[in-house]
Amino acid sequence: MSRSAGCCQSCLHSLFDYETSKTLVIPNLGVGCLFRFTQLLVLLYVVGYVCVVQKAYQETDSVISTVTTKVKGFAYTNTSDMEPRFWDVADYVIPPQSVNSFFVLTNMAITPHQKQSRCPEFPNPSTTCVDDCDCIEGYNNPRGHGRLTLITIPPLSFLTRLSLRPAVLAVAENFTVLIKNSITYPKFNVHKRNIPSQIRSSYLKRCEFNRKTDPDCPIFRLKDIVSEAGEEFQDMAVKGGILGIIIDWSCDLDWWARPCKPKYSFRRLDNKNPSNNLVTGLNFRFAKYYQAPDGEEARTLIKAYGIRFEIIVFGTAGKFGIVPTIVNLGASIAFLSLVPMVADWFMLTCMKKRDLYMRHKVAYLLDDDDTESVPMGTSYGTQ
Amino acid sequence: MSRSAGCCQSCLHSLFDYETSKTLVIPNLGVGCLFRFTQLLVLLYVVGYVCVVQKAYQETDSVISTVTTKVKGFAYTNTSDMEPRFWDVADYVIPPQSVNSFFVLTNMAITPHQKQSRCPEFPNPSTTCVDDCDCIEGYNNPRGHGRLTLITIPPLSFLTRLSLRPAVLAVAENFTVLIKNSITYPKFNVHKRNIPSQIRSSYLKRCEFNRKTDPDCPIFRLKDIVSEAGEEFQDMAVKGGILGIIIDWSCDLDWWARPCKPKYSFRRLDNKNPSNNLVTGLNFRFAKYYQAPDGEEARTLIKAYGIRFEIIVFGTAGKFGIVPTIVNLGASIAFLSLVPMVADWFMLTCMKKRDLYMRHKVAYLLDDDDTESVPMGTSYGTQ
Amino acid sequence: MSRSAGCCQSCLHSLFDYETSKTLVIPNLGVGCLFRFTQLLVLLYVVGYVCVVQKAYQETDSVISTVTTKVKGFAYTNTSDMEPRFWDVADYVIPPQSVNSFFVLTNMAITPHQKQSRCPEFPNPSTTCVDDCDCIEGYNNPRGHGRLTLITIPPLSFLTRLSLRPAVLAVAENFTVLIKNSITYPKFNVHKRNIPSQIRSSYLKRCEFNRKTDPDCPIFRLKDIVSEAGEEFQDMAVKGGILGIIIDWSCDLDWWARPCKPKYSFRRLDNKNPSNNLVTGLNFRFAKYYQAPDGEEARTLIKAYGIRFEIIVFGTAGKFGIVPTIVNLGASIAFLSLVPMVADWFMLTCMKKRDLYMRHKVAYLLDDDDTESVPMGTSYGTQ
């Protein structure tokens, strides 16, 4: 045979000869039990905790959500400091439509019929500017008489209320809101809605969400939302606030899991009692603009207090995936490979016959001459 | 030598002596091939599936997005039940600006010139209250004559339409919308826009999105959006609805990957034909407020039907990362460490010479006396 | 003893006999050092990089956020082409309230007192239609005289400005905005706010965000926001734009970590100088509607330029978690299991006494007869 053929054969040998480790069987119940018990512990962790509890074999995806809300309710107000008035949804939901949230007006301070005009004179404590006369506040470098500013014509139809309590639209607590929410998990191509398709329309016309009796009804009474969040509606209505309607769509999409349903919870999102006495509640100013036939513009300035309800949709869907399964199995196998080290250490350190085991398991190569020997009384760990 | 020096030397020995396992080479082609083949399978899985298909070596980040929309188009309506009217973007996009969505008015029911006034008498079937006269509905405990409510003065300029079909602004299907979308992957400090910088302005002035011919054009005709979502614009315009413009920014940011571009898709988000007959479509009420020179306020109540287009931007960017690479490599190595167990089991169970192999591979320590023996006919797995 | 008892005992043996690998100790400092050094490298990577730098032992969760904004400031404009006017927040924040963003009007083009009316004649260059007379633009198939359109009555109180420069509300740069942001990490049940509770209200009344001196103050001057984003407010005010107020809530929630605080940064989100000369800036059209006592409707059309400030809240919280810890430890253990292979390869290839080591470590089973032999000069890798 030529040299190259021999080399080739040697290569083939080193590729396809199977090299396996020599082992020693020790028929000792103690070590055997410890070994199997430790294996069992690791397996229990893997099967029990990682798979069943943590579902680490799942791929995950985050929710994409769309929300539509529709508030319903009428109010009639007749207080001493305001003209009697009738309110419907076009009056108290501002803006009329927004995505993922809706604002319900509960209280207000109105400054009617403001006009761009000139201050009759430089304001001083003796002049009759009250509250919203911005002669001073608005312009930091007043240049004396006749400067242009907003002045408030004595109101014709409304009076600015002297106190915010009680809230004008205290009755808003009886308004209801219908929440339609449809979600998508794009990675798994799953679409779901918060209104189950088997619910009858007759039920939807009269139902109201109740955690115990009507957990599937998508119609919420505002008072219930606020009280589930641990707040008092009448208190919150005075100065406003932000209330989260939190919809949790956490889903297990594996076929053996239960079908997933939204879980509603409610929480006040703004700081009710800040220690630093910062302005609390929620309010903003907006104006209704009018134009007289001669082109002169006037406005009604409204400082609106109210509750902004934010619909916060979150959730993670999990579904069996190859990669996370492999990664977690791999980690578990790596831990299983530690078990013999534990058993070896126990065997060579704590057992009565450890010297015997050591002698048979470990060979000691004497560096000087070409012989093996067994170590005497020194225990070597296996790596 | 002192005792402590001997102890120290023994410690050094146990630290720096190298302990390696004794092995047995078996020159059997069957076992060798099985061993290499199984190794190959695991490697193929790692390289092929985990790396190439799943890109498990990548770190991921979620997209942060900003959207601006600009609708363009004019409409002229001249139907029998409404005065002729000319519409532009300030009339039909409500609110004029919102983030991540825009609402196009397509149909409406108008109740003009409502005033806060007293009902002339307690309403009963013989009085002429129609539809929006809220004398009854608005106040649940009527106290008889003269109660304050909203009454509708006979309209001067508009008539409430008797039927919703066809949609008033059916022509809205020809409106176009320009969508500007810029995104960020904060972890990778990557910023991108949906309008490629190499596109010429002359092209942007005349182009229109078309999946085949103009996939990069950011200007969409509303009709096309709706029909790509599998809906009929004229049907949807009557009662309104929600349409998702879904922009998928899934990106592979590794330098060898193709540059990432947004992928547009369209889907109706609300339930078109709910089995439970729930109110379909999308509408909301809003009012335009007017004030007469004497301070009396009136309003035009508009029940607006229309299509809300929601721009939903999602995506995950992946880029080579050390930690996921290490984790996946580690899992693969752990699986590779299982391969010898498979080969051992095959060798000691299925091969003709299994007793021979067993005799040489496994030593059996007899517990009673201090000798080794080879097991007879019983196969022991390796762990 | 019966056969079944023997079988049972054999089973028990194979279950509880402990099988351990036979090892050979090689007292060579070179191999020992290499072995320990490689182990040390892997451990350093695991402890140093994976744990300390990448915090791969943590579970993560994405932030859920709520934002309230409140703009403050007054402006007084007195330019040659507009009537003097006084502006407050109800005039320049449009819409008055929105979630996660606010729009500040900085410039405008006003077309006052538009009425639905008939064009006196077909428009041609000699007729006096300018800019917003939509006789041509609005209707593509003009049918001659008398067609209905929007005409602009000569303005009474405002004039359309001939040039956009300078911005009408250039003074808006001195407006301030209070940003209240509360966040939740639902998986860890952690709630936080951007206004630290220990801050006194007296401080909040006068403070202004400054990266160096007042990093905790939640009140931002618009000019500072824009200049931190590397832009010039006066430039941006003319044509508008989108400015991101980015709040990074990346948190380490382990108890030994520092308490987490929001990090503010600012970035212009729209394309300032697009190469394709696309319309830059941000503007939209909206209308204020008026009604004359005779029911005739007019509107003031406003093309509003301004800066939309988008509050973008992002962040990932990490906290010690069992599963990621196990997975990363497992991967590290798997890598540690590679270390003996490296040392074996070095020992059997590079050492002077490699033949001696080989002879003692590896036994070669001759296939033909039932004897072992040591290989001569051929090095076999261990797997």
Automatic annotation (TrEMBL), chains A, B, C:
Q: Which residues cross the membrane?
A: 329-351
Q: Name one GO cellular component term.
A: plasma membrane
In the record, biological process GO terms are: calcium ion transmembrane transport; response to ATP
Q: According to the record, which residues are glycosylated?
A: N174
Which keywords does this Swiss-Prot/TrEMBL entry list? ATP-binding, Cell membrane, Disulfide bond, Glycoprotein, Ion channel, Ion transport, Ligand-gated ion channel, Membrane, Nucleotide-binding, Receptor, Transmembrane, Transmembrane helix, Transport
Q: What Gene Ontology molecular function terms does this protein carry?
A: ATP binding; extracellularly ATP-gated monoatomic cation channel activity; purinergic nucleotide receptor activity
Does the entry feature the keyword Signal, yes or no? Answer: no
The entry marks the following residues as binding ATP, namely K70, V71, K72, T176, N283, F284, R285, K303
Assembly: Homotrimer and heterotrimer; functional P2XRs are organized as homomeric and heteromeric trimers. Homotrimer. Forms heterotrimer with P2RX1. Forms heterotrimer with P2RX6. Forms heterotrimer with P2RX3.
Family indicated by similarity: Belongs to the P2X receptor family.
| Name of the protein in its database record | P2X purinoceptor
- Origin organism is Mola mola
